[in-house]
Amino acid sequence: MSSLRWGILGAAKFARERMAPAIHAAKGAELVALATSDPAKAAPFQAFAPHITVYDGYDALIADPSIDVVYVPLPNHLHVEWTLKALEAGKHVLCEKPVALRETEFDELIAARDRSGRLAAEAFMIVHHPQFIRARELVQGGAIGKVGYVDATFSYYNADEGNIRNQASKGGGGLPDIGVYTFGSARFVTGEEPDAIPYAKLRYENDVDVFAHVAADFPSFSYSAVVSMRLFNRQQMTFHGDKGVLRLTCPYTANASDVAELTLQNDQHSMTVERWPGLNQYVLQVENFCNSVQNGASYPCPLEFSRGTQRMMDMVFAAGKPAA
User: Fold this and answer.
1) Which end of the chain is more exposed for a tag (fewer CB within 10 A), N or C?
2) Is the dihedral of CA 35, 40, 41, 44 positive or negative?
3) In what order do the strands lie in the sheet with 69-72?
4) Taking 60 as the threshold, does the pLDDT of residue 48 lie above it?
């Protein structure tokens, strides 16, 4: 079976450094096109994919009948618009997170996906990595007993006002950028959805959330998370049960700042450690996407799953809204 032909909308830094190389390296995928009006921005892509076609507009790339899949790494506020346009043009779509900024926007996305018969999904890459697949298997299989508490932390420092993450008009903010990982990962591993957000302390700068401390009630456990764009780099995740503890090292950017590692302690005198030092979760994501399109394999992160994360996000923003 021939490879799926991929095109990228925009020469974003993340696309240049992570996703374009992943598409280029993935089995079953071929990077063939990039849309950017700046030839200088196209050059780094052409360095490893010299034969790609460069379009000077997004519409031109989407109109190319030879392109099978469109990857959307545009600023957050443009995700829904261009995902819909690509679906309407008959393309499969992998869109960067968050694919939407409100839960209600998923109605149109899911309807367009179903109408087109194409795969549309959020680029929630962590569920493709064996670290989280194994964590889900252990937690739901009872390895730590009854889960009572889950906590997550994801932070980095970015105070650059010119960066889109610090611009409210472009859908910026720490929660849309990385809160999707702390929220979505808890849902993925446990298989549960939050009932309520009893506490959410959010700090804003220029109408963008830069710090969030969140407590959530799930049906069978309590949850806590810290998400920030104004603290030193840190990420961790812990699942605490009545018969053990499961800890994930570098859970969200596996093998970037540290090795992806899972530590299970369910005996007072021993610990089990599993490590995945050589895997690229972006390549795994592209390969799973291609496998789903070409072979009908179940996709680990359908829009319905992403909708649940956005629902939790909306609940947190509502709970953390300053009193009038």
Assistant:
1) C
2) positive
3) 53-55, 29-35, 4-9, 69-72, 92-95, 120-122
4) yes
Q: Do the Cβ atoms of 74 and 62 come closer than 8 Å?
A: no
Q: What H or E segment, with its residue span, contains residue 202?
A: strand 196-205
User: Does pLDDT of 147 surpass 80?
Assistant: yes
pTM to 2 decimals? Answer: 0.96
Choosing from 27, 97, 243, 321, which is the catalytic residue? 97
| 97 catalytic residue (yes or no) | yes
Distance of CA 134 to the CA centre of its chain: 18
Determine the pLDDT at residue 324: 54
Cβ count near 221 (within 10 Å) = 18
Contact predicate 96/79, CB 8 Å = yes
pLDDT of residue 130: 98
SS3 159: coil
161-179 pLDDT, tens digit per residue, is: 999 999 999 999 999 999 9
Alpha-carbon dihedral angle through residues 122, 125, 131, 133, given to the nearest 10 degrees: 30
